[in-house]
Amino acid sequence: MYGISPLLGGSPQAKSRILAESPNATNRMRLYILPAMAALLLSLPLAAQNPRASTQVDTTSTGTGLGPAVATDGNLSAVVYNDGSTGGSNTVNVVTSDARGLTWSAPTVVDADITAARKFTQRDSVAVIGNSIYVAWEDERNGASNEDLFFNYSDDGGATWAGEVMIDKGYPAATGAVRDWRMVVQEGSPNMVYFLISTDPTTSANEELYVSSSLDGGATFSAAVPVSSAGLGTADVDGIDLAAQGMTLHVAFVDNRSGVSGTNEVWYQQSTDGGATWLGADVQIDSSGLGVGDAQFDPEIATFGTNVALAFQEELTSATNEELRMAVSNDGGTTWGADVMIGGYDPTLDDLDNMTLAATGFGMFAAAWEDNRTGADEIYVATSMDAGASWTESPITTAGGGFPRIIGSDDGSANILGVAWTSGAFPNTAQVSFTWNSGNSWSTPVDVSDNAGFDVDFHEMALNGDYNNFICAWLSDDLGTNHVYVGGLRSATLTVNGIIRGGVPVNFDMDFFSFDSGGFAGVLISGGTGSFPLPFGDGRETGLLNDAILTQSIANNPGVLTAGITATGSGTTPLFPWPGTLPVGTPLYLVAVGFDPSGGVTLGNITDIVEDMVQ
Question: Rounded to 5 degrees, what are φ and ψ at 459?
């Protein structure tokens, strides 16, 4: 971008220091919003999001793509799916990418089944910690009525795999059946892998609850340990969920131990030694009492610090309409407050479905659900920034939606949280909304699927905290049967205002920058794509070619390519005449980066690449 620097005055070399030097290797700064600033926030219409083009990743499938799951951490992302249904290979497959999720590897089969038995993957079938990938699936190879649970892992980003193992479900292979399960992986030295399993024994109609643990990164697993103090077979366990903090496991489950027809209760259990031992007595969470109210479907449990939230759906006020109930413990699960209803619907009239719960590592709980208070199912979110003491509800959709997933991150921005769902009208699309300011505002819903005219289902999402990058996976029937597609978007956006032409004024908008991204954002411009890692010890990849155009854009930060970011997360660079030194037709690739220059430069949000050209 030759010729801009004279507009600024002073030395281009001095100005380039803001984005070119690295005086001290520092991590991205985390700044937290002051309460007074929150009062300034308004739900303003900002620039439209620009989701990435999707990629079909099940390129070797011979049947129907099933059960997508997605996970990301650091500079590694993974998607798991099952090539199943009629004509399928019934294999469990993994594809990988870096944190940006732009290009994906060829599929790798991670099961060793030679019988081509049916397999089932689900939303937590994959976890990523550092350079390790953990995969789990349910499998009928030992009998269609005797499903077992299998596991495999890689410690080198998916290049090689340790080999599958069967997880103990409390009964031998071909005896009993796995009915429901959860996998949670915790970072450690080594990492810890936990399975919560409800098993249907062959000798009883009551499902039983077990945990199997690996404290050596998945190399070995314990025998299945019973969880509930009620005793095996005394009650039928239905919905389950699992959260972990190191060696501490938090378990939520629903059972019918009261014996009162049409009722189920919600229970909590805890282990502080990796699942070896459990509390002497289950803790009832639904304060309606034993044999009162009917808890429905899976509860969800989420933790940060000493705070534990447990959400569940219960037919309490109405015998036919579920409502979202939330109980919170602020002492690590030792004591629990009474559960409260979350949401502004009327449970005597409105029905709630598909509740989901998340926590970030920075003190936010968030729940999402769909309810029909307006006459059609719409998506709503409630957030709490005070450890569950109070909740703020936000409507997300007005055109219908269902099956939400809410996603936070334990690293990256403290303020960014996203919700994914499928649209309400056929053919469905995969949609996303996010908050960049701790739930004070939510972005307008955006379609991340570009399968125009085809039906999308099973939309799952993960958030990469380093790039604040939402990576989405879904099924779409573009090719006549469902296949697996991956796309997504980053929260922060960059918009070019006007035509890039010599002598014509132009400037740039930056929107959806989070509070902890710094008070400024700068635009970097290149004539191509390539590799340019961010400086100052940051290391994130911009994807830009390190060319003369990029050098000149760095020299103009701070300057005409820099914007101050306001409390709403937006900023606009000064208007300036584009220099006439680049030929018409020159392609341009632009990225915006948040930064804080105080006390040594630290970098914040980074946008996806925006493509333009000199006209």
Answer: -85, 120
Q: Are 427 and 414 in contact (CB under 8 A)?
A: no
Q: Closest by alpha carbon to 458, among 434, 418, 429, 432?
A: 429
Name which residue leads in pLDDT, 575 or 360. Answer: 575
Instruction: Give the mean pLDDT of 254-263.
Output: 90
Percent of the chain with pLDDT strictly greater than 90 = 84
pLDDT at 360: 85
C-alpha to C-alpha distance for 295 and 315, rounded to whole angstroms:
6
> What is the token pair recorded at 353?
């479905």
Burial of residue 349 (CB within 10 Å: 0-12, 13-18, 19+) is: exposed
The Cα-based distances of 89 to 58, 65, 95, 134, 393 in angstroms read 12, 10, 16, 21, 45
Residue 213's DSSP bridge partners are 194
Does 483 have pLDDT greater than 90?
yes
Buried b (16+ CB within 10 A) or exposed e, 209-247: bbbbbbbebbeebbebbebbebebeebbbbbbbbbbbeb
pLDDT confidence band for 350 (50 / 70 / 90):
very high
**In degrees rounded to 5, what are phi and psi of residue 553?**
-70, -35
550 three-class SS: helix
Q: Give the residue from 458, 365, 453 showing the smallest Cα distance to 404.
A: 458
Tokens of 200: 């249907």
What 3-state DSSP class applies to 186? strand
12-36 burial: b if 16+ Cβ within 10 Å, else e: beebbbbbeeeeeeeebbbbebeee
Query: In 3-state terms, what secondary structure has residue 35?
Result: helix
Residues 216-223, mean pLDDT to the nearest whole number: 99
Statement: residue 34 has pLDDT above 80: no
Query: How high does pLDDT run on average in the chain?
Result: 91
CA 91 vs CA 86, 105, 112: distances in Å: 13, 17, 9
Q: To 5 degrees, how large is the angle CA 256–CA 310–CA 401? A: 95
Pick the CATH number of 5-46+493-613 from 3.30.430.20, 2.40.420.20, 3.40.50.300, 2.20.130.20: 2.20.130.20
Cβ pair 507, 575 in contact under 8 A: yes
- The answer to whether the CB of 379 falls within 8 A of the CB of 368 is yes
